[in-house]
Amino acid sequence: MKGIDYTTGSIHRLLFRTAIPMLLASMVNVITQLANVFFLGHTNQSVLYVLSLYIPVSFVMISIIEAMQLSVQVAVARSRAGGSKAFTQLFMHMLGIALLLAVATGGMVLLLTPVLSWFYHVPADIEPMFTGYVAGMMAVSVPAVLAAVSSAALRGLGRAQAASWNAVGTAVLNIALVYTFVSILRLDLQGIIYANLITSVSSLALSLLVLLIRKETVKERFVFAKRHLITLRHVGIPVFFSYCMIFLSTFFFNKIVSYFGEGAVAGFGVGYRIQTMAILPGIVLGSAIGIIINHNLQAPHRERAYASYRQGLIHAFALYVVIAIVVWICRDPLVSFLIEDAATRAEAARYLSIVALSYIGMGPMMTTLLTMEQSGRGYQALLLNAVYFLIIIALGWVLTRTFNQVIYFYGVIAGMNVIGMCFFLPFMRLLKREYVGGAAEQGRITEGEAELSQQGYSTQA
């Protein structure tokens, strides 16, 4: 099917046509995460405590998954002209790299698990549960990474519909399995491990089956070629470091909150998960803006690149006024629905009562950062992320230890979300200068833009 033409037509309409399918696909993961929190939230506080401690650890594997996914999508989309033989070689390279990275990273995390237990002062009676859960999830992450690579290959080949149905099917399967293992069989965290293992293997098998049925792969002798790794350097590395930054930040966030006990960690973890889901529309909108920008880099269309960010930012503000108010008003019924333990429920509601309204700034901030990453400014976005997280960690640590109240840490997060809006105007002026000013007249394309100028693959059905 012919892809969307981003060089003509209403930018407002293009933003919606691009962002809504991406958002619907991403909502599958949101619903799955909410279901997991719901089922585990009706067990006991220790389970939620371990689940909250695992949040920063999970970002280690997420960084590999996201880096590999984006790299594979871009590389496959660019290699389509080479036919099945070229795709088969590329796909084999990417699967091999993903396998090596997943095994090496998982092994490293396993070796560091005792250090994590010591760092968080995990109680002795809970430590076996924590180490067992980390070990199980690291093992499950290996097929999960391979499944993500295979699904990304389908999207890069223009078979996004097949990849989406795969995601929906495996998400439904995951929810059903978690319910069975956790709520019926009472396996608690082990149930999450078993459910993720089954769904990851199923997703991998389905993606490979589609590739075989559609004859996208051919029988080919593997020959190592360095050119297949270029996309990892230009696309995957900035994405990987961005998620590593999130890992480090949440690692220290949990350390700050752990000073106030298990209930605080469990409640903060639930509130933080809700926040992660709430900012998803901003991330998707930023990706949609980046796609439009990358299709309008040539001289006749560069003004549309600037207009896409300006209009997208307006949409982001309007959307997050609604999201912030809804989350703030509904915080108590939301956490009551997800969590049974009263202390954990109260802490999660307290976190959202302080931070939720600041999503009005955080959502558009995420939109801007994703736009920067998608338009060849990934390292600048990484620097801004680093400054944002470092200030929260440093100031949050000092204030909580000085006043012995965790709400000061929550207040710092809310304050930084508001302060983050300060760089919208300078970034907009930068885009206007590059796309509408002298750079537009010369038709100049920066090196970063050139590397990312072919990211329209995600809109093909």
UniProtKB/TrEMBL annotation:
<keyword id="KW-1133">Transmembrane helix</keyword>
<feature type="transmembrane region" description="Helical">
    <location>
        <begin position="406"/>
        <end position="427"/>
    </location>
</feature>
<feature type="transmembrane region" description="Helical">
    <location>
        <begin position="165"/>
        <end position="185"/>
    </location>
</feature>
<dbReference type="GO" id="GO:0042910">
    <property type="term" value="F:xenobiotic transmembrane transporter activity"/>
</dbReference>
<feature type="transmembrane region" description="Helical">
    <location>
        <begin position="47"/>
        <end position="69"/>
    </location>
</feature>
<dbReference type="GO" id="GO:0005886">
    <property type="term" value="C:plasma membrane"/>
</dbReference>
<dbReference type="GO" id="GO:0015297">
    <property type="term" value="F:antiporter activity"/>
</dbReference>
<dbReference type="InterPro" id="IPR052031">
    <property type="entry name" value="Membrane_Transporter-Flippase"/>
</dbReference>
<feature type="transmembrane region" description="Helical">
    <location>
        <begin position="20"/>
        <end position="41"/>
    </location>
</feature>
<keyword id="KW-0812">Transmembrane</keyword>
<keyword id="KW-1003">Cell membrane</keyword>
<dbReference type="InterPro" id="IPR002528">
    <property type="entry name" value="MATE_fam"/>
</dbReference>
<feature type="transmembrane region" description="Helical">
    <location>
        <begin position="90"/>
        <end position="120"/>
    </location>
</feature>
<protein>
    <recommendedName>
        <fullName>MATE family efflux transporter</fullName>
    </recommendedName>
</protein>
<feature type="transmembrane region" description="Helical">
    <location>
        <begin position="132"/>
        <end position="153"/>
    </location>
</feature>
<feature type="transmembrane region" description="Helical">
    <location>
        <begin position="313"/>
        <end position="329"/>
    </location>
</feature>
<keyword id="KW-0813">Transport</keyword>
<feature type="transmembrane region" description="Helical">
    <location>
        <begin position="349"/>
        <end position="370"/>
    </location>
</feature>
<feature type="transmembrane region" description="Helical">
    <location>
        <begin position="274"/>
        <end position="293"/>
    </location>
</feature>
<feature type="transmembrane region" description="Helical">
    <location>
        <begin position="234"/>
        <end position="254"/>
    </location>
</feature>
<feature type="transmembrane region" description="Helical">
    <location>
        <begin position="191"/>
        <end position="213"/>
    </location>
</feature>
<dbReference type="Pfam" id="PF01554">
    <property type="entry name" value="MatE"/>
</dbReference>
<keyword id="KW-0472">Membrane</keyword>
<dbReference type="InterPro" id="IPR048279">
    <property type="entry name" value="MdtK-like"/>
</dbReference>
<feature type="transmembrane region" description="Helical">
    <location>
        <begin position="382"/>
        <end position="400"/>
    </location>
</feature>
